[in-house]
Amino acid sequence: MNLPGKLPRSSLGSLVLIATIMGGGAAAFAYTAGWLSPGRLTPERMIEALTPPGGPPLGYRRNHAKGICFTGTFEANGNGVELSRARVFARGQYAALGRFNLGTPNPNAVDATVRVRGLGLQITANGEVWRMAMINPPFFAVSTPQAFHDLLIASGKKDPDAMKAFIQANPEFGHFAAWAKTAPWTGSYAEEPYHGLNSFIFTDAKGGDHAVRWSLLPAARPVPISQADLEKRGPDYLEPEIAERVRTTGPLRWTMVTTVADPGDPTADPSKAWPETRRKVEVGTLIVQRIEPERDGPCRDINFDPTVLPEGIRVSDDPFPAARSSVYRKSYDLRAAEAKNYPRTGAAKP
Amino acid sequence: MTDVPHRFTLAQRLLHWLMAVCILAMLFIGAGMVSTVAPKYLPLILIHKTLGVTLLALVLIRLALRLYYGAPSLPDDLPRAMKLGARSSHLLLYGFMIIMPLLGLGMLWAASYPVVLYGGVEIPALLPQSDRGHTLLWNAHVYLGFAFFALVLLHLAAGLFHALVRRDGVFATISLVRVRDRTTAGERSLGPRRD
């Protein structure tokens, strides 16, 4: 029986219980935050691996740091409607905003030293925003975000065995190395194709799902140039070249082609290209109308997070879009916090 | 209200426990999602945003109920310092519940991210893109998140202290099930004794 006013159990036991619950809660929180798992691949670790030896260029994107903005339109031809109900595929013209860039964390890199060129793009269609980040190789260098992290670490080491060990562990990198060696260089952002590489799921009006990848194929004819000749044109050749090209020859065009996977095609691995015979649907044309400055241009503050998708497009089992979203977010947080270190205006250009 | 209630109303108690579970989930999801690059990052961030906006709506309802129905008074024999701690921690908890979702929304707006919740519900941006604004709101969201978790732990400890050590009826005012403590035992002793 319990007498009123009397504690039936020792309160010491209760205090120990309370302390245990508090400690357990704090430990669970620390574990969730990753503080107890040094092996976890966090956005911070990925950015650390991207950082050049001399430290990050403050205020810049942590990768694809060198680039230039553009504005234009996306002209949908209406063919995409059979694959996705996203408004952007309904026949019409939609605002496009983007950025040509080089796949390097160094904003002062010499153009001819950077193999991978990229295109960040945002299309806004009746309030729906679609962002994407594409590059010019037809497949990605590695199969997983962890392998990409390992590649950054291995390629940053002076020890030549580090890369050998990496390739042994990630044989898919061989295809990319072969592409990097043999694919022709061009002297213009305008002559490059840009590939989405990651597979996404398009959902049509009837609710049918289609696994797709997309590419932007240039209307400009690629003129191959040797790396050495490109180098002779100067360290910062590509940006004035594209500005001059738009000024003198007018808008530049790329056809957006979506490739539809057959059942069984690998959707989770962007290092594996799908066979050339897969069904292709041309869904529209990107028209680049104006080259805009990077520093005060409209793309400077846009995070080209490839998971900002309209209704009718969603991520697939490809692990990269989530990883890119997570790392890009961290990169944006960092560069926004470092804004005072970034030469904001064209006038301040050294 | 002239009468001081013995317990919070059922609606208040249900809302308290529902929000308790959701807020704990929010804090853990928040800490977990920013420390991973795994595919679960995307569903976690979607849940975090959706639940955050839902919790903002719930706390406003809760505040209205609190202002209308009031709260049971604290036991007379509770030391002054503990009373002060109880009142200020509750004010702080309400403050966190209101400001955390607003900071979260603000930091997304200031980064020009479209805020799309579960089911495609979009929240229109009320702030323009701003590096300085984003950084301020982002830091506030993160650091106040840690402070919120610490305060939630403290609140939990205080609740358990009332329930297990002091047994002064304070925990019974918010609990969903009947709790045996000094007050309720005393009340019960007014009825027929079973011993």
UniProtKB/TrEMBL annotation, chain A:
Q: What residues make up the catalytic site?
A: 64
Q: Which GO terms describe its biological process?
A: hydrogen peroxide catabolic process; response to hydrogen peroxide
Please indicate if the UniProt record lists Heme as a keyword. Answer: yes
Presence of keyword Nucleotide-binding: no
Q: Indicate the enzyme's highest-level EC class.
A: oxidoreductase
Alphabetized, the UniProt keywords read: Heme, Iron, Membrane, Metal-binding, Oxidoreductase, Peroxidase, Transmembrane, Transmembrane helix
Q: Where is the Catalase core domain?
A: 20-349
What does the entry list under GO cellular component? cytoplasm
Name what cofactor the protein needs: heme
Q: Which Pfam families match?
A: Catalase
The cross-references to SMART domains, in alphabetical order and at most eight, read: Catalase
Q: Which residues cross the membrane?
A: 12-36
For molecular function, the Gene Ontology terms on record are: catalase activity; heme binding; metal ion binding
According to the UniProt entry, what is the EC number of this protein?
1.11.1.-
Query: What's the domain of life for this entry?
Result: Bacteria
Q: Where does heme bind?
A: 328
The function of this protein is: Has an organic peroxide-dependent peroxidase activity.
Provide the family line. Answer: Belongs to the catalase family.
What PANTHER family does the annotation carry? CATALASE (PTHR11465:SF9)
Q: What is this protein called?
A: Catalase-related peroxidase
Originating organism: Bradyrhizobium daqingense
The major lineage groups are:
Bacteria, Pseudomonadati, Pseudomonadota, Alphaproteobacteria, Hyphomicrobiales
TrEMBL record, chain B:
Q: Name one GO cellular component term.
A: plasma membrane
How is this protein situated with respect to the membrane? Multi-pass membrane protein
Membrane-spanning residues where? 14-38, 50-70, 91-111, 142-165
Residue span(s) of domain Cytochrome b561 bacterial/Ni-hydrogenase = 7-172
One of the GO biological process terms: respiratory electron transport chain
Gene Ontology molecular function terms on file: electron transfer activity; heme binding; metal ion binding
Main subcellular location of this protein, as a coarse class: membrane
- Localization per Swiss-Prot or TrEMBL: Cell membrane
Query: Needs which cofactor?
Result: heme b
Q: Which InterPro entries match?
A: Cyt_b561_bac/Ni-Hgenase, Cytochrome_b561_oxidase, Di-haem_cyt_TM
Q: Which UniProt keywords apply?
A: Cell membrane, Electron transport, Heme, Iron, Membrane, Metal-binding, Transmembrane, Transmembrane helix, Transport
What does the similarity note say? Belongs to the cytochrome b561 family.
What's the name of the protein?
Answer: Cytochrome b561
Supply the source organism for this entry: Bradyrhizobium daqingense
* Organism taxonomic ancestry: Bacteria, Pseudomonadati, Pseudomonadota, Alphaproteobacteria, Hyphomicrobiales
